[in-house]
User: Which sequence fits this backbone?
């Protein structure tokens, strides 16, 4: 059973603050307040976020073995297909090592064959009790040693073959070389990045979204790859670039980062789009992503508002003040839900587009008029 202790404390705090309302007067001037609109086009007519382009797949390419580059055919901006050669290290030393390992393997195989034949002969003699236990054990031990040496030699050949194959660096997927970090004939170390490859058939845009937007409107529908305010109301995402004036591109939601930037209090949100045929969008380009409301007029009955918008009394009743025409206000009872960031969920007779008092709510009463200020 969930405890209601946090909400009781919240009610008490709200009620205590609410008792500080201003005294009545015959003709009081409208009280200046600040407001917000609940989940409507007026509340969020558009949101603009700024981000940068990156490929949908990204990898820094490096060799698994060290050596001098003898072939490095790619340049920054080169398009490559999966399996294309990125670079080749001088293979001569690796071929020599492989040849030596194969030679040792041949010798070891011969010794193993000899040890196996000797053991088989002495095994038959031992079964006939023609040789002693000590003689049998000596040839069995010799076979075990030869078998172990054979496995070691086989592993050495396999490692030398892998090392020789690793002198070639090939593209793990198709894409564009966006950076080249080495030069031909340069000695490179194992795992030293020599080139950066990105798949630009689909591009990603990473934008920074405020904590408030993440908490209040940016509910991610990962299945349909879009942001939703409710089942009927969602946010249309569109990208524009300064380099491509007059063009706009639909983008789809991919993921929301779980951790905010402690300096900016924003969350990374990744959206994606296919590479357009009419233009070339490259990594690092600056993008403006606009979020616009689409869908029906009826939103989710649950809204998230700043705690200061909620008023209460000592009996535990809570409400918000809804603004009407001419500065009139109406008290709307609400039920409190969960916190999301610095906001609290409210449920009541409210609809998207309702204008709710935030700053100044606890100084209001029935019949008092308000004046909305920025």
Assistant:
């Amino acid at each position: 059973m969930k405890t209601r202790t946090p909400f009781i404390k919240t009610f008490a705090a709200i009620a205590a603050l609410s008792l500080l309302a201003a005294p009545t007067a015959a003709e009081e001037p409208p009280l200046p307040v600040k407001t917000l609109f609940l989940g409507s086009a007026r509340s969020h007519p558009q949101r603009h976020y700024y981000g940068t382009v990156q490929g949908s797949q990204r990898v820094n390419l490096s060799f698994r073995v060290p050596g001098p580059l003898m072939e490095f055919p790619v340049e920054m901006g080169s398009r490559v297909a999966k399996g294309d050669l990125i670079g080749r290290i001088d293979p001569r030393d690796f071929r020599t090592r492989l040849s030596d390992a194969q030679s040792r393997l041949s010798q070891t195989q011969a010794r193993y064959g000899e040890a196996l034949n000797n053991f088989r002969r002495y095994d038959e003699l031992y079964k006939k009790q023609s040789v002693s236990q000590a003689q049998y054990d000596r040839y069995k031990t010799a076979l075990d040693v030869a078998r172990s040496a054979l496995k070691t030699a086989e592993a050495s050949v396999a490692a030398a073959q892998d090392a020789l194959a690793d002198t070639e660096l090939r593209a793990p997927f198709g894409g564009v070389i966006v950076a080249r970090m080495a030069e031909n004939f340069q000695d490179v170390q194992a795992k030293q990045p020599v080139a950066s490859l990105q798949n630009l058939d689909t591009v990603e845009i990473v934008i920074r979204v405020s904590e408030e937007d993440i908490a209040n409107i940016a509910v991610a529908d990962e299945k349909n790859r879009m942001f939703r305010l409710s089942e009927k109301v969602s946010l249309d995402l569109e990208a524009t670039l300064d380099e491509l004036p007059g063009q706009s591109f639909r983008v789809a939601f991919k993921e929301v980062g779980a951790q905010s930037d402690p300096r900016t209090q924003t969350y990374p949100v990744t959206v994606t789009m296919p590479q357009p045929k009419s233009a070339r969008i490259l990594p690092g380009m600056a993008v403006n992503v606009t979020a616009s409301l689409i869908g029906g007029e009826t939103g989710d009955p649950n809204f998230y508002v700043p705690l200061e918008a909620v008023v209460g009394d000592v009996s535990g009743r809570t409400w918000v003040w809804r603004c009407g025409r001419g500065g009139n206000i109406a008290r709307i009872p609400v039920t409190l839900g969960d916190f999301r960031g610095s906001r609290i969920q409210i449920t009541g007779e409210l609809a998207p587009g309702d204008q709710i008092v935030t700053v100044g709510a606890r100084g209001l009463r029935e019949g008092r008029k308000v004046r909305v200020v920025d």
About this structure: DSSP finds four helices and 24 strands in the chain. The first strand starts at residue 31 and ends at 33.
